[in-house]
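Dear colleagues,

As part of the handover before I leave the project, I'm documenting each prediction I ran so the next person doesn't have to rerun anything. This entry is a single chain, and its sequence is reproduced below.
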Amino acid sequence: MPTKWIANFNSYGSTFNIIALIVVIIMIPAATNREDQGLPRFTPSSVVWGSFYEGTDFPNGLALLMTFVAVTWTMSGYDAPFHLSEECSNANIASPRAIVLTSGVGGLMGWFLQLVVAYTIVDIEAALDSDLGQPYAAYLLQILPQRITMAILALTIICAFSMGQGCMVAASRVTFAYSRDECFGPLSRITKRVNRRTLTPVNAVWFNTIIGIAMDFLIFGGELAAGALFSIGAVAAFVAFTIPIFIRVFFVGNRFRPGPWNLGRASIPIGTAASAFVVLMVPILMLPSVTGSDLDAAGMNWTCLVYGGPMTFILIWWFVDARKWFKGPKVNIEHRMLGAPDATLDGITRDEKSSTESSTKNNKGLDSDEVGRWA
């Protein structure tokens, strides 16, 4: 789809997600049938805040930190604004603002939903071990009539489709950026091409679609494979997000040139806290849920191997070969950072824009190296 269509689709999808989440947060406590089961309408606060569900063999404090894997994974959607920054107007303001609003609104609404679940769930063990294989659906069936449960699950499916589409858009732009920098070798020639009709990286979208479908087959590998996949997603995403923050805080410092929309004096403290959080959480997210004699190959958390293996290969590749030719991301937009209005890097000047746009109408496809982008 063209960028404008994508923007409209995501706007409608995001709006529907927020409305559906608010509806669910209100519907669950309003329609719960806990009282029909001889239970109080809500679990007492002393139980919610004063007890631990012992789902691991680790101490309660460490087990509490291990629960952040769900939060870390679900909060990763806020990276989409900077993946799409090349395709939006006023990106130096719109992108950081969208990141803050997305993480803020998502975190707040997610917290409310977690509170609703904590105050209404009947049996955690039964929800996790349900034959349905879907703890959320099993939880809803514990506390709601079947029709209301089906309605909430229908909203969840629609929201999941919308979120999946947004993730696909962001992932395809990451693939396009890597391809533009020739990180995929000969494959980059294909995945970096821009469709002449939509002016979007359609080949990169199909590439990510194929990878996504292939990863879906991991569900046949059982909980071990699926759990490793989610842990890898959380660890890899947050390491990638934190690297530039860490460099900005601990290496660049006051030499950093902030954009027009920034965190001001809070930038360094927030960046320091973010870096410390990731340094703390990455090892914890790789821990298994059991220890000692109960730990076997099926219960092991293989994230450290599945994530560490490719990262080790990439580091070796960098020192052996990639550092010889990779000199940084290629820039194909008008470069004004240094105050040179007509300067460009690996792109075209504004005066060439009209001629390039007219020539694209006769091309079957465009390489990212051939087309400059204007916000």
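Strands lie at 193-195, 365-367. Confidence is low (pLDDT under 50) at residues 334-375.

All the best with the project,
I.
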